[in-house]
């Protein structure tokens, strides 16, 4: 539907009931082999692997429906699916880097992104340099003639700095670098980076797009045909694809993304507000809070928030932290986020930063507000702080 709003796109993109006997949801195609009626058709398919389906790994109608829906939300030319968020990040780097290149990566990037860069790109002869996430247009000083990729993540993992995406993208274009961003936190509903100069938008669809903590999935959305072809070739050459059932779960998750995010946002803001009043809490790292780095950029470019944020507390000994967290009833201790369940996790950004120093004293906790009743979540946290105080 032309000029449809995002909630409408979520409900209608990637499905064609008239082509599926009136069935609302597209069927799940379990496929490895695709048969061709003639030799001529088979050979034509082999010549154009990115415009036809000639093998299950290349795509199926289920795959294409999901990718079409994500691309429409992103305002992208086309989207490529992968088996996880990290798989999407790695595939995008493979598409745009080669030996001898220089890449710039935000110092606040997702930990596995940093590990991939350090353990895979560097040994293959790619120069990796990390930069201050608040650098903005100052990134010009770090650009080199051989800078092939500038990788952003906004807000940043754990510490939630919001980056000046348009300024960084404009600077990167002066040397012809491909600008990529991990946009998982904001989702395509709250931020469309391709409209701000970014070339490739990446999501761990495992998180909010799937939304139910039951599938691993990644997506790479590209601004134009050339970028999409590069990514699709990289995915094809490395055998990258998601299984049909996970693709279907991602497509199903899209249908309720908007209503879920409203609850995640509302609950996270309420939790952050309550936590800010606790005497042990010294700082709230949430882009909607004025003292979060890049708050003004968040207001300018995003303006909405999801369910993930961090807090900094006074330093507490391990025994007291265990007493605080071990008896939580609703908040689970676990990695990942974006599902219906609330999560909490200690975080240590100082251990991974290299371009900047994390000097905030104290203990950091990262929280994900799930879809439970927020008053129950607050009661669970209240009990945790009671146990903490008793243990000190």
UniProtKB/TrEMBL annotation:
Entry keyword Lyase: yes
Cofactor(s) named in the record: pyridoxal 5'-phosphate
Entry's Gene Ontology molecular function annotations: cysteine-S-conjugate beta-lyase activity
Pfam families: Cys_Met_Meta_PP
SUPFAM superfamilies: PLP-dependent transferases
EC number(s) reported in the record: 4.4.1.13
Region Disordered, residue ranges: 1-23
Source superkingdom: Bacteria
Keywords of the record: Lyase, Pyridoxal phosphate
Keyword ATP-binding: no
Family named by the database record: Belongs to the trans-sulfuration enzymes family.
This protein's name: Cystathionine beta-lyase
Record organism: Azospirillum himalayense
């Amino acid at each position: 539907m032309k000029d449809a709003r995002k909630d409408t796109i979520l409900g209608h993109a990637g499905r064609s009931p008239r082509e599926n006997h009136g069935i609302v949801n597209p069927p799940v195609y379990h496929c490895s082999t695709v048969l061709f009626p003639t030799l001529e058709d088979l050979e034509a398919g082999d010549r154009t692997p990115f415009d036809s389906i000639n093998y299950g790994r290349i795509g199926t109608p289920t795959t294409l429906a999901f990718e079409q829906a994500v691309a429409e939300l992103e305002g992208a030319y086309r989207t490529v699916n992968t088996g996880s968020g990290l798989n999407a990040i790695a595939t995008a780097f493979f598409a745009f880097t080669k030996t001898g290149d220089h890449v710039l990566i935000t110092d606040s990037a997702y930990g596995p992104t940093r590990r991939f860069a350090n353990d895979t790109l560097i040994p293959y002869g790619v120069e990796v340099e990390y930069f201050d996430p608040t650098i903005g247009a100052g990134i010009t000083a770090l650009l080199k003639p051989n800078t092939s990729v500038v990788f952003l993540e906004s807000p940043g993992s754990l510490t939630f700095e919001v980056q000046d995406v348009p300024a960084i993208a404009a600077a990167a274009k002066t040397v012809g670098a491909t600008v990529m961003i991990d946009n998982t936190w904001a989702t395509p509903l709250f931020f469309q980076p391709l409209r701000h100069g970014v070339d490739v938008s990446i999501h761990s669809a495992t998180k909010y797009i799937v939304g139910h903590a039951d599938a691993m999935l990644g997506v790479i959305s590209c601004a134009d045909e050339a970028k999409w072809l590069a990514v699709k070739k990289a995915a094809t050459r490395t055998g990258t694809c998601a299984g049909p059932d996970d693709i279907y779960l991602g497509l199903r998750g899209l249908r309720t993304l908007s209503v879920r995010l409203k609850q995640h946002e509302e609950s996270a803001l309420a939790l952050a507000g309550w936590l800010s009043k606790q005497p042990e809490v010294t700082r709230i790292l949430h882009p909607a809070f004025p003292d979060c780095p890049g708050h003004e950029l968040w207001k300018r470019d995003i303006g909405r928030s999801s369910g993930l944020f961090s807090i900094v507390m006074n330093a507490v000994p391990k025994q007291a932290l265990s007493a605080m967290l071990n008896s939580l009833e609703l908040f689970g201790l676990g990695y990942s986020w974006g599902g219906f369940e609330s999560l909490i996790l200690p975080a240590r950004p100082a251990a991974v930063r290299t371009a900047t120093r994390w000097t905030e004293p104290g203990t950091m906790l990262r929280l994900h507000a799930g879809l439970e009743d927020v008053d129950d979540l607050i009661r669970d946290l209240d009990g945790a702080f009671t146990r903490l105080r008793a243990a000190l």
